[in-house]
Amino acid sequence: MNRYRFTLRFFGVLLSLRYCTGFSQNAAPPANQEIAESFNNGHRKRDNQRVKPIPYVATSSTIEHGKALSDYIQKGDRVLELGTQLDASSDTILKAIGHEGHAVLVDVQRTDTNSGRSSQGTRNVEKFSSEASKGDQKNYDYVEIEQFQKWKTILDQYASSTDESFDIFVLDATAMLGNDLELTTLSVIMEFVTEMVTRRGTRPRAVLVKSKAMTSLSRRLVHAQRLFDGSTTVDLKSPSRDGRPYIVAGVGVEEYRRTIPHVMQNGDRALEVGCFSGTTTALVHEAAQPRGYCIGVDIGPKIIERAKREHPDMHFAVGDGRKSLELLRIQQASNQSAEQSRVSPLDGYDVVYADIGGLSGPDGTLES
Question: Nearest-5° angle of CA 57, CA 60, CA 62?
């Protein structure tokens, strides 16, 4: 797959991760400053009757993470840090919230390794407590939990009501989860936000996550509107620097289809997951002509029958979008792809369009 790209249509809220970005050592990009300012006067305000999405800010290094903490955390904030190392990042949090704020610093209990050394890394609880409390009233609690899965007990203890909600959620993915995987990290973030909204009736102002995987994802994620107004310089018809797919996120059928000329080119091998009656599939197919094609896939047999009736010259198949091998076999079975493509039909797809509207979930983020 030489030019691997995803275009996603979301049924509900825009993917909040579109706000993720890396920070330079000197200053945050203007977009981050605007987001921070928009939340300064209260994160529950409405703009045009819509609640503003929560910014998920991803950083990949300690320096970037510290810069993000300084830019987003305000005096008086209540902050939850999962995966604390009681290091410079924790110190930055305490200085930013001041005497009026409170931080809950959480990590998993560390056990002795086979070598006899403690696996707690650089954490020194006594030293940190001594230095953080010099001349000041203690403005934090340090909590160790037996295992990562019990992190929600912290919410029951420290955020049991709206008055005790957290303004900022900080997560060190590797330190807390033991890995740095996109879906695992994103799942934890969304669980936290859901817990705060559904059980406590409040939302964090921002989520700050230290994760190389999430930073990579944020750099490849493009808001459809930025394609239309020319505010992004990303060339979606060329490979990304790391060879991983760009992801274009939009809301509604109109945005979804308007991305086609920005993404497709002659010769592309395309797939639409959740094709329904095949209208978008046909538009993508036309944009890939004369050397390329688009195959439509949907999980409903009756839906595929309808698509075949309305577009008899195109290829549609029943399939599950979550099973990549099945999608490759559909491509192999397509006489159309074998005839029109000058490469092996097993080489995969250059572009994948995915209509997430029919999937379960509040906004289709994890399904996407």
Answer: 100
Q: How far does CA 204 lie from the centroid of its chain?
A: 16
Confidence check: pLDDT of 17 > 50: no
Q: What is the distance of C-alpha 335 from the center of its chain? A: 36
CB 170, CB 90: distance < 8 Å: no
Question: 257 and 123 share a domain?
Answer: no
Domain span at 351 = 218-358
> What pTM does this model have?
0.75
Residue among 59, 80, 17 nearest 174 (CA): 59
Going by C-alpha positions, the residue among 63, 104, 62, 61 that lies closest to residue 81 is 104
pLDDT value for 198: 80
Question: Is the model's pLDDT at 16 over the cut of 70?
Answer: no
Residue appearing with tokens 């079975």: 333
| Structural domain count, the chain | 2
Q: Contact 79/103 with Cβ under 8 angstroms?
A: yes
- For residue 287, name the pLDDT band (cuts at 50, 70, 90): very high
Report the CATH number at residue 350.
3.40.50
Q: Is residue 153 part of a domain?
A: yes
Spatial neighbors of 262 by CB under 8 A, at least 6 apart, are 227, 228, 236, 248
What is the C-alpha separation between 320 and 130, in angstroms, rounded? 56
**Residue 140 domain-assigned (yes or no):** yes
Residues 47 and 85 in one domain: yes
Spatial distance between the Cα atoms of 135 and 147, rounded to a whole number of angstroms: 34
Cα 333 to Cα 317: distance, rounded to the nearest angstrom: 10
What one-letter code names the amino acid at 253?
Answer: V
Say whether both 233 and 142 belong to one domain. Answer: no
Alpha carbon 272 to its chain centroid, in Å, reads: 21
Rounded to the nearest 10°, the torsion over CA 142, 145, 150, 151 is: 20
- DSSP line for 272-317: EES-TTSHHHHHHHHHHTTT-EEEEEES-HHHHHHHHHH-TTS-EE
Distance (Å, rounded) from C-alpha 236 to C-alpha 190? 28
C-alpha distance from residue 246 to each of 61, 179, 205 (Å):
22, 23, 27
Domain assignment present for residue 179? The answer is: yes
**Strand 293-298 to strand 316-318: parallel, antiparallel, or no bridges (unpaired)?**
parallel
